Task: inverse folding
């Protein structure tokens, strides 16, 4: 199996159609945030070919870049995917059927969960889970501010109130030590995210959930194969939600799944994702229970997932080894602090390789300029999320008539007064991400990344003085 090189992340960001049709390279905006930052981060510098610069000079100042080879492209596929899709086309059954069922049982056995329900995407896995657990108007759901917006949208779409708990800047995860003080009489759920493929502090969160009788749902949309105490994340909460969106480590373009061990809950999730019809509803049985929508996965996506899953473990091992090496290299560079894992996190899925950048150790070079200089060296990196708890979509939701009926002005004013996440605000100015595909190549790629960071650090005083970095 070969890794296709040459395609870059920006190819798929705005393009619905790709150069090789359904097996083309797509990384949609999903986790990555705005397409603009991806494009900027990946663009090859025009001046990279300059032959005048000394090899030590920063590429941004006319030097030779550390590398010109693109990082592995994504997705990775071969005849397995092509054959699987052709089989579905010829079967004549394109909607939920035996391929979806086969994927569900494979994913359940891979994760150790009793049940798996495939959904249209990770957002619908969250919506179906929250809906099946009865989350609705007036309920409070504890969430991290450092996540993809879908986590919060799932809460808002059910007209519940997201209550943000600050981030642990060492790990980039929700700060479990601060969860309990956010619990009120209306708190119905804690919704931790296993951000970047690492794990939130599940011991602490589950203990609070048990003691205060609050359900826990895991947003494991970035954490395929990640583990907490040697058991897969997504199997600890009432449900665990996964995404198979194009950027994710397991990819069917769009797709999602819910894991649970609860027989009754999986049936409720099924109805939530199947317009209120249960597994037993067949033919002309039109009896309905629970509010639902159509959030089903297709046979095409399931067939792709089954094929993609044959590579998942091997790719995860490559990321594991490369990430461990990269952490060793980057930890030696003053001003670079790789995200730490909790002691209970026994496996990181490395959907994102995350570190903090301390500009003061880089002659005051702003992070944006650091990213620009890195990109010029052939290392595309991103700044990551902005503080979600301050995004205007929250006030937009609160000002809608439906929300105003549910939540009094006094209640929302209290929410506003408590909606401060200073650690997260700081993290959002210091974070740097490398996407998972950058960990899929040879070990030498890690040397290149570290070399580029060291080179930019050495050139930082000059970079600060020039306008090139601005
Ligand atoms: C990708 C993602 C989602 C949403 O998944 P989709 O498949 O894009 O709907 C939710 N939460 C997190 C943390 C994600 O990264």
Result:
């Amino acid at each position: 199996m070969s890794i296709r090189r040459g395609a870059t992340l920006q190819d798929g960001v705005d393009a619905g159609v790709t150069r090789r049709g359904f097996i083309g390279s797509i990384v949609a905006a999903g986790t990555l945030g705005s397409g603009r930052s991806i494009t900027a981060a990946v663009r090859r510098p025009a001046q990279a070919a300059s032959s005048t610069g000394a090899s030590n000079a920063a590429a941004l100042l006319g030097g030779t870049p550390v590398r010109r080879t693109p990082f592995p492209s994504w997705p990775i596929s071969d005849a397995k995917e092509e054959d699987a899709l052709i089989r579905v086309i010829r079967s004549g059954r394109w909607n939920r059927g035996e391929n979806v069922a086969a994927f569900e049982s494979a994913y359940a056995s891979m994760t150790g969960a009793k049940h798996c329900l495939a959904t249209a995407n990770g957002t619908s896995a969250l919506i179906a889970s929250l809906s099946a657990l009865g989350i609705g108007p007036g309920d409070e759901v504890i969430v991290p501010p450092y996540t993809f917006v879908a986590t919060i949208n799932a809460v808002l779409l059910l007209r519940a109130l997201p209550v943000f708990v600050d981030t642990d800047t060492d790990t980039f995860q929700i700060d479990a030590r601060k969860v309990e003080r956010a619990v009120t009489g209306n708190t119905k759920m804690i919704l931790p995210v296993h951000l970047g493929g690492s794990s939130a502090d599940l011991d602490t969160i589950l203990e609070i959930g048990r003691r205060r009788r609050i359900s826990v749902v895991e947003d494991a949309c970035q954490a395929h194969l990640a583990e907490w105490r040697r058991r897969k994340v997504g199997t600890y909460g009432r449900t665990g939600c996964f995404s198979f969106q194009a950027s994710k480590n397991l990819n069917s373009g769009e797709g999602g799944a819910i894991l649970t061990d609860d027989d009754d809950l999986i049936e409720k999730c099924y109805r939530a994702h199947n317009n209120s019809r249960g597994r037993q509803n067949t033919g002309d049985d039109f009896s309905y229970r629970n509010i639902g929508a159509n959030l089903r996965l297709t046979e095409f996506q399931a067939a792709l997932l089954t094929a993609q899953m044959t590579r998942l473990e091997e790719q995860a091992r490559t990321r594991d080894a490369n990430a461990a090496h990269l952490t060793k290299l980057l930890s030696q560079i003053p001003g670079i602090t790789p995200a730490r894992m909790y002691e209970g996190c026994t496996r990181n899925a490395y959907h994102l390789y995350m570190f903090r950048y301390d500009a003061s150790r880089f002659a005051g070079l702003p992070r944006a300029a650091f990213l620009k200089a890195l990109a010029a060296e052939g290392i595309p990196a991103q700044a990551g999320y902005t503080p979600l708890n301050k995004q205007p979509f929250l006030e937009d939701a609160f000002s809608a008539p439906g929300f105003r009926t549910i939540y009094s002005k006094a209640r929302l004013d209290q929410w506003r007064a408590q909606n401060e996440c200073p650690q997260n605000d700081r993290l959002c100015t210091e974070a740097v991400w490398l996407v998972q595909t950058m960990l899929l190549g040879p070990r030498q790629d890690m040397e290149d990344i570290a070399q580029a960071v060291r080179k930019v650090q050495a050139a930082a005083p000059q970079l600060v003085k020039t306008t090139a970095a601005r």
User: Anything to note?
Assistant: The chain is about 35% helix and 10% strand. The chain has two domains: 3-76+311-385+427-469, 79-305.
